[in-house]
Amino acid sequence: MQIEQRPVGSVMVVDVNGQIRLGEGDVLLRDKLQSLIHQGYKHLVLNLAGTSYIDSAGLGEIAHAYATVTRQGGQLKLAGLTKRIHDLLAITRLLLVFETYDTDVEAVESFGKA
Q1: Is the dihedral of CA 32, 38, 40, 42 positive or negative?
Q2: 3-state helix, strand, coil in the chain (%, to 5)
Q3: Domain edges within the chain
Q4: How much is the pTM?
Q5: How far apart are CA 108 and CA 83, in angstroms?
Q6: Domain 2-113 homologous superfamily, CATH
Q7: Given pLDDT bands bounded at 50, 70 and 90, which one contains residue 97?
C-alpha cells in the first residue's frame, strides 16, 4: 500500500493506493492520519480511488481516524469510492457515518460550503 498526501488550501488530501488490510496497511494508514491530526490538520479527505480492498482492520482504522478528527472539531470525508468499497460501507452501515464524494475535488470543495 502507498500513501501520499497533498495540501489543497486548508484541506489535506490523503491518497491511498493498494489494499488496506491487517498488518502493514492498517498501521501505515493509522500512522499517517495520526501524524496529520497531530500536525493540526482538521480537514481531511481520504481519497480511496486507488484502493482495491479494505478489510475489517482497515475499516477500523478509518473509523478511528474519523472519531479522533471529529473529537478535535475537524472532519474526515471519503472520496473516490470504488463499487466494492461503496458496497462494503453500505453493508457495514458506515455509509451512514461518513460524508462521501465521487471525487477528491468535490470533497475538498465541500469544506468551503460548511
Answers
A1: positive
A2: 45, 30, 20
A3: 2-113
A4: 0.93
A5: 21
A6: STAS domain (3.30.750.24)
A7: very high
